[in-house]
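Below: protein 1.
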Amino acid sequence: MFEVQHEAVSGRQTRALDLSILIVTWNSERWIDRCLRSIPAACAGLSYEVVVHDNASGDGTLRHLGQATVIRSLSNDGFAAGTNRAFRASKGRYVFLLNPDCDLAPGALTTLFEFLESHPQVAAAAPLLIDEGGGAQREFQLRRFPTLRTLLAEVLLLDKLFPKNGTTARYRYRDIHLDRPQRIEQPAGAALLLRREVVDEVGPLDEQFAPAWFEDVDYCRRLAAKGREVWVVPAARAVHFGGSSLEHMPFARFVDIWYRNMWRYARKWLRPAQAETLRWSIITGMLLRCLAGLIGFKPRGVRRWDAFRAYAGVLRKAFDRWEISSPSSS
């Protein structure tokens, strides 16, 4: 269940809106005010609206939403469902997916808008995400589509043991220079501008990837399947602070969702034998992590026993194939 609370539109209103900015919040009080304050300067010269879908935040997020259109859910329905509802409530010729933990640079959305206006063959464009120090977050943001090899490297920690290996380097686009716009297979969905007609053609985000992770990878894969291009435009920038959802989520819950959605992605896009290979590799990877956790090797900030229980939980569910019963929605 959800309800639309109120609505306001900024910019010129004598023609169709240029842009709808879609934000999904969940306990985002720490970030959302800074995000919203960055929008007017980022949209210089554009008519726009802001549509926020709130996933039943328990903090003060709703007090900071100002004059945006607000869709309030009574439960945490996830990023995909929230984005889909926000899209249906929006009117702009373009839609911009924006995480609440992003701070847009002045002119960022104007630059993306003008890029898409002048490149009709491009379906979507992303700003370059940077950290608070101004460094590019390319390792997080820019990746090629996952293959069985790249997924195995992550699950079995080969990317950590051999960080300079060729598979990981290619997967993370270490072979390109970010001094000009570049075609990218799957930029992170934290900040992504899409043409409305493309969304109408490709369809909504796949809500099986709830509450988060891999829905943006899946969507870019679906764009590619339609022959649509996605580019990153480094002249448009956004500071991405990261971790807005993780700070409210127990470690065990995160790893459960991450590996479940990884396997859902594999079942959707890889061959059945490859998906099964990945599942058994997840089982192996969780066994190794359980053993490592018992002797003290664990993620920073996570207690040894909590890490062990989290990995053991994934191990158990991987054996049961996560009991997936719901088919893909797209």
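Below: protein 2.
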Amino acid sequence: MSELYLRLFNIKWVRPMKLVLYSLVPAFISGIYFFGLRGLALLAVVVTAGYISEYMFARQYREPVHSSVFVTCLLYVMTLPPTIPFWMAAVGIAAGVVFGKMVFGGFGKNAFNPALVGRAFIYVSFGNFLTNRWVEPFSHGFGGFIRYSSDALTQATPLAMLEKGESVSLLRVFTGNISGCLGETSALLLLLGGVFLIYRRVADYRIVISGIFGMLAMNFALNLAGIAGSIPCIHALFSGGFMLGIFFMATDPVSASSLKEGKLIYGLIIGLLTTLIRVFSAWPEGIMFAILFANMFIPIIDYGLKSLKKKNGQG
């Protein structure tokens, strides 16, 4: 039956994509628990729009739809506010798949992470829906498993509260019982899923370690200097989308460096920029733009490292 399904929809599945999906499922399910069954409807809309967007281009390239599009769709949904309009989510994933991947020639040729391209597109186009439509999570009984969506509005996410000097429970941040995007809130489940990917060698530990080090080092330095807007390091690590970004998006092998040294530099850039954007820009979250910015420099990083090795007689 599965083979018939794949042939019918012209889909090419590869095992690493399956492992990424498996590792994301617990965090996504927690998002359903905290924010309601609307998240499943949102995922269905996004997967449909994402598949159609890739299929239209893949058909012209005479290639099958690559299973990576489903990873892109799930990652993208997990970065969205639970109440975002369906049409807006569909527009974003179409932009991410088309302009983030297919215009470059499809899977393996894209310079940027497609999920983040889509997220950035709607972020700059419909900023009000991406920054001011947060809701309180369900936290009792079956929670969102028996409810469609939460209508209890909240004013800010933990990152925004922390930057204002307000107190935020670290336990709530770690478990996910906080306002925020659909699949970013449970740092615990994202951490477990990320470690699983590293263990299965789907994600490169160099990017993760250097990214975390860069973010914590810059955050510690700003805290030490007493810079307004900097937050405690442990809260900075587990709040917002950093765990989702550093484990599941920064480690995308296509848009990351192909060299061991390059991966360390790439991760370090992401970590440093995440903190700098969080503290000094108008956006409380920085991981999205940090990864996209670092993606731009991969060609020159790899070129510089290869030239240096060649000069030193190593390659």
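The chain has a mean pLDDT of 88.
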